[in-house]
Amino acid sequence: MTIEPSVRTKVLVGQVMNSPVITASPNETAKDLALKMIEYKVGSIVITESDESVGIVTDGDMALKIIAKDLKPSKVLARDIMSSPLHTIDSEKDIREAARAMRNLGIKRLGVTHNSKLVGIITMSDIVSVTPEVMDIISEKARIMAGEPRKKRGYLVGYCDSCDQWSDYLLEVDGRFLCENCREGERPSEDLP
What we know:
The strands form three sheets. A three-stranded mixed β-sheet has the order 1-2-3. It is built from eight helices and nine strands. The longest helix has 15 residues, at 131-145. It is α/β, with parallel strands linked by helices. Helix content is 35%, strand content 24%. The protein has helices at 13-16, 30-40, 59-67, 78-81, 95-105, 124-129, 131-145, 180-186, and strands at residues 23-24, 44-49, 52-58, 88-90, 109-114, 117-123, 156-159, 166-173, 176-178. The chain folds into two domains: 13-129, CBS-domain (Roll); 151-193. A hairpin with a 2-residue loop joins strand 5 (109-114) and strand 6.
């Protein structure tokens, strides 16, 4: 009887979300929201009323609903440009579910909830940023399932810091992760493990 090793293949929404959530009231101006986006280095502000999320204003909303219409940001209220409702996903869901929800809804951000409380925001960019790690997990599981031997200890999988090509055999050399070809150009092969 063969027992397959347990390999974690899920990345949870709560592991990649941005927190804390930056909020504003529906009566704040677009200028106020833009200043908060700059201050907190975020691309969206959740609009809340009586501690409940009622919508979201994104940098895209600002561009399409204010700049494109040549409106004055200090005269436009959040309630007039917010997208409502704020679509959410539970923090314990897999990021694939978040990506599917965003695609199906035609949006780039979801509020993240834990025990029905808003605790963060996840964006399509957040999901894309963890894709290489997810691919590493999937590749390792596929190797195990196929019965392939484990790679030699010390090798990493990813993009070479020198040539930007994918390699299953990266090694760290002087603080850079290099593939076999680039390592050969860096120092004599007899010095390499």
